[in-house]
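FORM 12-B: Structure-to-Sequence Request
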C-alpha cells in the first residue's frame, strides 16, 4: 500500500487495535499501570513518563504527520521547547537562535539559558555570513521557526539546515504556524520539530499541549529530560488533541483562505501602512514560501496609521474577532503583540525585532470569509475611507 495522505493519517495514524469495539480512542484515566518486569525506569507505564496509551497513540500519529521516526507529546509548547533544548545543551555550550522568535521562546533563550551557563546569540535568518561569524567551538544548536511570530517572516530554512549539517549542529524548528499540512521540516534536513499543539493541531482553544518529533535517539533524550521536568500531557487533553487533529487539514485550508483574503483586503486600504503575510506577492519571502510550503497559514499581522491608540480602537470596533492571545482555533482572534505574546520582552528588544506598539496580529478562524471582510471594513470605515 502506498503512503497514506495526511487527511487519512490525522484520523487513523498510529491507532491501537479497536478497544471493546470503540471507534474513538478511549480515555485511559489512570495515572499508573500494572508492571511486567520492565528493565528500565523509563519503561514503567506512568503518566509522568509519557508512555501511557493516550500519550503513545497521539505521539505515533504526530510522528507520522511530520514523517518522523518518533515523537513525544508534552503539557505545552514551551514544555516541548524547554525539554528539547535542555536535553541538547549543557552548561558551557552555545546556541544560535533566530531573531524574531515567539516571545516566550525568545525569553527562554535570553533569560533562562544564560542562567544555566549556556550562551545564546540571536541571528538574522537570511544572513549565513553572520551565522559563520557567530558560531563558536562550543555551538551545539541552531533554533528557527518555519513562519515567525508575529511578523510572518520565512527565513532561509534550507540554508540553516545545510549550515547546521556541515557543522554538526542540532537544527531545531518550531513548525506551529505552517503545520505538517503545509510543511514538513524533517524533509529538508531539520533534526527536530517542535509544536505548540495548543494551536492548529488541536484547533479549538480548549487545551494546551506540545510535541517533539525527531529520530529515536533525540526523542528518547528529550523524553528522559521531560520525565524529570514533569511536563506530561494528561489523558483527557490527549483525547481532545487527538480529536481536534482529525479536522486539521479542513480547518487549516479555510483559515489560510480567510487569511489571504483579509491580507489582500488590508493591503488595499490607505490607513494600513504594512501587511505581513507570506501569501501576498509583495511579501519579501513570497517566492520562497510558495516553493517550500503547500499553503501560507492562517495568521497575518499589519500596521495601522496612528500607532497603539488607533490599533486599540480598531480592536474594540471589530465584532467577529475576539481580543485574546493564541491562534489556530476555529474562532478568529486578534491582539497587539506588544501587549500580549511579546509583553514579557523589553520595549528595546521588541523594537529590535521590528515589533511596534501599533502592530496588530490576526489569527483567522473558519468563519465565513465575507463576514470577516465586512467586519474589518466597517471597523476601518470609522477611521476613514475604505477601498472596495
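FORM 12-B RESPONSE
SEQUENCE OUT:
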Amino acid at each position: 500500500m502506498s503512503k497514506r495522505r495526511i487527511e487519512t493519517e490525522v484520523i487513523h495514524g498510529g491507532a491501537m487495535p479497536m478497544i471493546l469495539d470503540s471507534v474513538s480512542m478511549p480515555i485511559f484515566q489512570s495515572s499508573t499501570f500494572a508492571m511486567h518486569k520492565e528493565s528500565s525506569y523509563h519503561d514503567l507505564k506512568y503518566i509522568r513518563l509519557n508512555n501511557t496509551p493516550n500519550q503513545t497513540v497521539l505521539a505515533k500519529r504526530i510522528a507520522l504527520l511530520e514523517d518522523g521516526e518518533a515523537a513525544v507529546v508534552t503539557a505545552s509548547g514551551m514544555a516541548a521547547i524547554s525539554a528539547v533544548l535542555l536535553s541538547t545543551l549543557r552548561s558551557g555550550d552555545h546556541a544560535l537562535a533566530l531573531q524574531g522568535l515567539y516571545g516566550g521562546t525568545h525569553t527562554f533563550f535570553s533569560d533562562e539559558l544564560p542562567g544555566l551557563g549556556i550562551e545564546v546569540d540571536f541571528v538574522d535568518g537570511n544572513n549565513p555570513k553572520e551565522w559563520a561569524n557567530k558560531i563558536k567551538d562550543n555551538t551545539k544548536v541552531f533554533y528557527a521557526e518555519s513562519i515567525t511570530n508575529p511578523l510572518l517572516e520565512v527565513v532561509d530554512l534550507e540554508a540553516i539546515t545545510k549550515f547546521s549539517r556541515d557543522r554538526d549542529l542540532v537544527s531545531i524548528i518550531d513548525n506551529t504556524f505552517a503545520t505538517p499540512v503545509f510543511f514538513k521540516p524533517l524533509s529538508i534536513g531539520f533534526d527536530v520539530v517542535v509544536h505548540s499543539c495548543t494551536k492548529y493541531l488541536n484547533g479549538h482553544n480548549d487545551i494546551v499541549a506540545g510535541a517533539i518529533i525527531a529520530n529515536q535517539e533525540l526523542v528518547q533524550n528529550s523524553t528522559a529530560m521531560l520525565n524529570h521536568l514533569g511536563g506530561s500531557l494528561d489523558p483527557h487533553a490527549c483525547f481532545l488533541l487527538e480529536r481536534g487533529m482529525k479536522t486539521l487539514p479542513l480547518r487549516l485550508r479555510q483559515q489560510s483562505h480567510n487569511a489571504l483574503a483579509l491580507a489582500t483586503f488590508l493591503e488595499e486600504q490607505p490607513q494600513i501602512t504594512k501587511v505581513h503575510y507570506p501569501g501576498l506577492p509583495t511579501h519579501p519571502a513570497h517566492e520562497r514560501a510558495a516553493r517550500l510550503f503547500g499553503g501560507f497559514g492562517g495568521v497575518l499581522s499589519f500596521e495601522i496609521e496612528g500607532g497603539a491608540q488607533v490599533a486599540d480602537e480598531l480592536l474594540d470596533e471589530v465584532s467577529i474577532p475576539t481580543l485574546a492571545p493564541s491562534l489556530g482555533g476555529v474562532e478568529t482572534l486578534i491582539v497587539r503583540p506588544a501587549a500580549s505574546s511579546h509583553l514579557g520582552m523589553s520595549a528595546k528588544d521588541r523594537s529590535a525585532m521590528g515589533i511596534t506598539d501599533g502592530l496588530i496580529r490576526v489569527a483567522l478562524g473558519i468563519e465565513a470569509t465575507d463576514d470577516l471582510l465586512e467586519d474589518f471594513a466597517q471597523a476601518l470605515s470609522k477611521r476613514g475611507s475604505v477601498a472596495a
